[in-house]
Design goal:
The complex is a heterodimer of chains A (about 1000) and B (about 100).
Chain A: E1 4-5, E2 13-22, E3 25-31, H1 35-41, E4 48-49, E5 56-57, E6 70-75, E7 78-84, E8 94-98, H2 124-129, H3 139-153, E9 168-180, H4 184-195, E10 200-203, E11 219-220, E12 223-224, H5 225-237, E13 242-245, E14 248-254, E15 258-264, E16 279-291, E17 295-297, E18 310-312, H6 313-323, E19 325-326, E20 330-335, H7 339-350, E21 353-359, H8 366-374, E22 378-381, E23 383-390, E24 394-402, E25 409-417, E26 420-424, E27 427-429, H9 432-436, E28 442-444, E29 449-451, E30 464-466, H10 476-490, E31 503-504, E32 525-527, E33 532-533, H11 534-542, H12 548-555, H13 568-579, H14 583-586, H15 600-604, E34 615-616, H16 620-625, E35 628-633, E36 636-642, H17 649-662, E37 665-668, E38 673-678, H18 682-689, E39 702-708, E40 714-724, E41 727-732, H19 737-751, E42 758-761, E43 766-772, H20 776-783, E44 784-785, E45 799-804, E46 807-812, E47 821-827, H21 831-842, E48 848-849, H22 852-862, E49 908-915, E50 926-928, E51 939-949, E52 954-962, E53 971-976, E54 981-988, H23 998-1001
Parallel strand pairs in A: 2-8, 9-10, 9-16, 10-13, 16-30, 18-26, 20-21, 20-26, 21-22, 34-36, 37-48
Antiparallel strand pairs in A: 1-19, 2-3, 4-5, 6-7, 6-8, 11-12, 11-31, 14-15, 15-16, 17-27, 23-24, 24-25, 28-29, 32-33, 35-36, 37-43, 38-41, 38-42, 39-40, 40-41, 43-47, 44-45, 45-46, 46-47, 49-52, 49-54, 50-51, 50-53, 51-52, 53-54
Chain B: E1 2-5, E2 9-12, E3 17-21, H1 34-42, E4 50-56, E5 64-70, E6 76-81
Antiparallel strand pairs in B: 1-2, 3-4, 4-5, 5-6
Classes of the chains: A alpha+beta (about 1000), B mainly beta (about 100).
Chain lengths: ~1000, ~100
Amino acid sequence: MSPRRTETGGRIDRLRTIRFTFDGAPYTGHAGDTLASALLAKGVTLFGRSFKYHRPRGLLAAGVEEPNALVTVLRGDVREPNIPATMVEIYDGLVAVSQNRFPSLAWDVSAVNQLGGKILLAGFYYKTFMGPVIGPLKGTRFWMFCEHFIRRAAGLGRAGTAPDPSRYERMNAFCDVLVVGSGPAGLTAAKAAADQGARVILVELEPRFGGTANWSGETIDGAPASDWAGRIVGQLEGYDNVRLLPRTTVWGYYDGNTLAALERVTDHKEVPAKGEPRQRYWAIRAKTVVLATGSFERPLVFPGNDRPGVMLAHAAERYANEYGVLPGERIALFTNNDSAYRSAVALKKAGAAIVAVIDVRSDVSNEMSRLASEAEAELLAGHAVVATEGGKALAGLKVQRFDMISGALSGDERSIHADCLLMSGGWSPTIHLASQAGAKAEWDPGRQAFLPPRPTQRWPTQQWIGAGAFTGSFSTAEAIAEGRAAGLQAAGGTASLAALPVVGAAPGDPDPAPVFEIKAKGKSFVDFQHDVTAEDVRLAHREGFVSVEHLKRYTTLGMATDQGKSSNVPGLAIMAEALGKPIPEVGTTRFRPPYTPVSIGSLAAERFGDLKPERLTPMHDWHIANGATMYSAGLWYRPMIYGLAGETVEQAYVREAKASRESAGIVDVSTLGKIAVQGPDAAELLDRVYTNVFSTLAIGKARYGLMLREDGLAFDDGTTWRLGEQDFLMTTTTANAGKVMQHLEYFLDVIWPELKVTVTSVTDERAGAAIGGPNARAILASCVTGTAVDNATLPFMGIVHGQIAGVPVMICRLSFSGEMAFEVYSGAGHGTRVWEALIEAGRPFGLVTYGLEALGTMRIEKGHVTGAEIDGRTTARDLYLDWMLSKKKPFIGSAMMDREGLIAPDRLQLVGLISLDNRPFNGGAHIVEELDEANPHDSIGHITACCYSPALGKYIALALVKGGKARHGTRAFVSDPLRNRYGPIEIVSNHFYDPDGSRMHG
Amino acid sequence: MLITCPYCGPRDVIEFTYQGDGNRTRPQPASQDLDAWNAYVYDRLNPAGDHNEIWQHSGGCRAHLRIVRNTLTHEILSTAFARGGHKSAGHKAGGNQ
């Protein structure tokens, strides 16, 4: 005897046969089957092995809350683990395998763990592996040794390693009313809101709309409930203002009524249709949300409640009515409430023998007695199941007399022969989304369940309305009434007086008896997926865990992939009893997103690979065409070197730097941050943000400036040009352009709104080329028209306007390389034309193009600072820029920059280093006074930038070293254990080359 | 989270940059009162409840906003230009000049 397909019934398409494999064996099912229903129909009862003890496990549920029957679905090399078999729709060619078993599901070596059950208690790993040192068994190290084996033995499915070839999509949707759940409450709400003209989205996580109407066997207005649901869905499909989303799970409820949903678009298809993504991530912004998410039936906690063949009562009813599958031939039911009686009748009708209804309550209502007789079941009131028998399928169970008040068992054990035991421990509303939205659950002593409170937030944009079983109204008639009211309210309509549909349903009291656990000998499971037993919960209590949040973490109750959908309330009830407190005082944990596991692919959607935008200078294509090796600097791509055939990077930059100093070099500086600072108070603003004075700067001149942060540390440097009385062009370092802009905007908006200044980012509007070297001026003179560039017209830090190749340009004479140099700016669109004209003009002079490496080399030789030295920890004094700190005026950072710690004599300060062993340095290497390769110690500083200096013929570096200048002329060592580079160095001034600046002043 | 920019209307929080505690008062620029500077640079209120904050609509009009936000519920109680000249949400006039 085993589960089987019924002759008739169910909402499957019996004419369509679908072939799939499970653990390598071929199976068939019908269209409309889930993997769970199809396998059950073929007599499969064993679906998986449990997490810790490797106990055989079968189906507990029929829906999303299934904790046991987790499978891995394979598509080519791609494996998706831990999917409940109840959520896998079968398709031709489906390949699914079971999990956590070795070598096979039926014969599993780790099942011996069951014998060690006394050892693998709650906190086993903490206690064993964080414990005291016993011989070689050192706590953490021992754990690391064992981890490999434990991870193999305990666990769920294995993640794949093959890249996921699927495509995912993200959609943004907006609606007036989002209805979550499409049972009778949700359907009615969607219809009512849509009839008011509201834009409605109706979301259902199952493939079929209708929820309980699909399997309840009830009638609505005289027709089967499923027909009624089908009719409403048909009507909604015809509405322009309604979007129906089946196979879609709303998994997150965020601020401002933003909800996240996952639509499984093609997971149920053998081959996706053209253009279809695998899954679609919906970001839904709803004015109002109707939560009609229903409820979950709870298991009862008793010894052997995890044996294959023990199932939730409604799940069996659903398998019979929706899928045409009987989970057993001889079925017993064990309940603390009335709802199981309806299940008994339904299963009887479907063809099973109902051997007994075991009810913990001693007085059962006449209506329920009548239902038990209708099912031809023996009614054992005031009894409880104390044991189950069987291995990979249920063989029977034992019952005893049970006193509900004391929890005591009495009388002889009686054996009942059954191949399926259905349990019902009452119902818990699915309050997850409301909990995520911030609502605190309230315990209802009648329903013995946490109910969502009415939302009371004063925030008008966080609106949800509950309907149906979600609110604890478990009958279909109530669900329809609440659904209509919710839909009308959500759409801003007025309450309707029209008659509601008439529901024909089995009678029953929605309130269960307050019984969660039968205490008898044997393992009674609370959390099936994480193998947490009632005894584990009590052990946690004995060991001093009183907070429900700690209980959860210590026992891992409710922390598996099902997030405790079935185990939450029974676990709390057992904890409350151990604490001797009522359940509401123990409280419940808050649910967090996601409601069900979400694929990472759907979250990324189209955004994968390199997500950063690429910023390219106007001359980018020229660089590529002329042999540049590009380097990414922040978002920008800049030439690193223009290497010749066979050249190393070092050879290339040395050649470029050398040629620049001997004749001339040109570099693309379009990436420098450029901010137009304009207005009557522009000069005043600059005086406040720079450490030096800008209001005295003459029109047509530029000045080097330094900014500090409010806390007195160095922030950024650059030159600012005065183009007019009220018109300045500020340049910033490439990396800090955005930060400086935000800094200025903040001060103008928040601190000094009285200043009449506007700041505009003009970085992208201008192309820039810096041309420097002894021949730079001659090259410019040969191509610039409309202005002279001689020393009188264009002195150091002077600005002129002219044309190159007919393009208007602005030229400023300033130098980063230490040579006589000019920055030439044109409109971005003309950048390449000007650049090419300069290259052409430079040809007779041997002008070279150079990249970031040569640029860095020349600046290191000159001892100029960049972001490597202005690293957020250095002050102006550390960098010997104190000459820039004006004493005539306050500026940002001036009050804080001279605090004790910022002027201490042992601060790291800027120096130059020369390699005495003629070997290259590495950035980040430490400087020590005493070389000790075995045990490096006492760093006195570190290298910030290094290169081979063609001007000096030596390997040199800039470094931040304790004491700074005081060490000039002394020797120390570089100590770089990571790269095994040790050697003697000399500490010198950071101004290696042309310290008096005679070359750039000309 | 949605923030209603007085200039641009309701926008997602990802368009905005948090710019810190709005309760700070910057001392006069020439002030040498280090305690006052210290409080301004380092002290933050961090209340559990209503909080004055500065946000910048960095992905929009770039105006800085003074926002009263409840740090427990993320409820936004008021939004105004940091420069003053508050316009109520949806009233698209004035700008931030």
